[in-house]
Structure formats: structure tokens, C-alpha cells
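Section 3.1: Structural characterization of target chains.
Under the original work plan, the team committed to producing a structural model for every single-chain target entering the pipeline before any wet-lab resources were allocated. The record below documents one such target. The sequence was received from the expression subgroup and is listed exactly as submitted; it comprises 310 residues.
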Amino acid sequence: MDYLAIVDLGSNSARMVVEELNSDGTYKEIIREKEDTRIAQNMGDDKILQEEPIRRTIAALKRFQQQYKKYTPRVRAITTAAVRVATNQDVFLNRVKNELNIQFQVLTGDEEAYYDYLGVVSTLDIKDAIILDTGGASIELILVENGRNKEAVSLPFGAVTLSEDYNLANNVTQTDIESACKHILMQYQKLNWLQNIHNLPVILLGGANRSLARMGRTILKENEVNDIHGFEMPIAIVTDIFSGLRHMTRLERENLAGLETSRADIIISGLLPLLNLMNFIHAPKVVFSESGVREGLIAEMMIKDDKKIL
């Protein structure tokens, strides 16, 4: 039996999965772990990874390694926006290599968007839509037409960076929200292809969007709050949830059903890319996906393995 471990170091959280790979091309997830490492915290304008987030992250990676090493798997380790832009990227990656013997691949924005696309279309029946992956320090937008990725871009803002840059963690003001929205819209307006998109659903990935799904399912009194893959939500509910969040204190957000306590300081900033995109393209609904980069990596690997067999 073959096993694959994927370690996905994002700007807000680190995730690890172990997949059991079958000879018929199928696979089964046997371990899934997540820790809120928030490596993008306090990077500042100089884009320097700070010592405390680095220590948190390495500790989490060591815990992951203890879990997956008993399977002696192939290990695929990838990291995204925060490490991608960090001026001390080499120092961090060398430290991880020396302490854990893990070699991370730093995905480009285009690669991250591509794997998001592969992960979504391999698990959801998607024809025409826009995929939005909201991370801690970047977002990815992918235009899907007739099931194919037509356009893709990675933009350098996310839930953590927007929260820090526009004071959206604690006592959130209308002025701060408007300033963040202005910045987001300026980035959207630079995308010529996005100007011509109207009335497409938005497929949502990322931690803030998963929290939105759980809050929505709680409001709708769904039996399985965490069963979000393929779950659809009309725009009116998205807007209502955000309207409630923006008027809450941080403590109230921490105690809100469906929202992880650790995301209370970044949920408002994490939903702003979606709110602005919905309005920009007049999206009729959102659809949530549990599959993204990690599933895209698996899909790519399985395709390559099939070609080797042929």
C-alpha cells in the first residue's frame, strides 16, 4: 500500500493530510490535521517572517511529522503567499530543512490558482463559475468556462493582511471597512477579463469561506454543520451574515455558532474579498468547496501515475 502525505503551509494555518493510494487510481484520506500557525502575522511592509510565528509553525510541522512518519509516505510539502513574498524566505526554508528534513516547494500564484482549479473540478460538477480562494495573505481568482480554467490570478491581500492593514480585528468602523473595500476593488478593476463577467456563481475555498458556510448552515438549521462540500447559499444570506458580524464585538464573534474562535479577528477581513466580488460581478449564489490545492496536487499526481502505468 502506498501513502502520500501533503503538508500545506498557508499564511494563516498549516494543514496536513495522509492519503492511502489504491492501485485502481482511487485514494482514501486517513489523517487530516490543521493548526492555526498564522505565519503571516506582523510581517509588516518589509515582508519579514517573525520569530514567534516561525517557532509556532515549526512546532506544528514537527507534530504533523510525528503523525505521518509511521506510514513512510511520499511527502509533498508546499507553501504559499506569506513565504512566497517573505524577504527572509531562504532563512526560514533552510531552518525547516535542517530541523525537519522537509523541503518545501514555494508555489507561485499561478501554480496555487491552478491547483485550486484542479481540486475543485475533480470533486464538483462545475461548468461556468469563478473560483475564489481566500487565504491569509493572498486570494486566487479562477474563471472557469465550460469546465476549463480560462483565466487565473493571485492577488496580494488576504484575511490576515487586510485585518492588520485596515484595523479589522477588534472595534471595526465603517471607515476601516470602506478603506479595505476601496483597496480590493482597485485590484479587481485592474483585471480586464473580470470586467466582462456577470451573473456567475462563486465557488469558495479558504478558511474564512468555510466559516461562512458553517455559520450559514447553522442559521438554516442544517443537521450537519460541517458538511459544506457542494453546499449552496444565496447572496442574501451571505450579506445578512456579514452585516451581523460587522456590528459585533470581537468577543461576540468569538462566541458565534459556526465560527472558529481563532478566526474572530480575521473573519470580517476574510469575507471582504467575497463581498466585493459578489457585487462586482452580480453573483447569484456561492457554492462551497472543501477541495482545493491539496486535492489538486493529488489529482495531478494520480494523472501522472496513470500515464506511467500506460
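The two ends are 20 Å apart (CA to CA).
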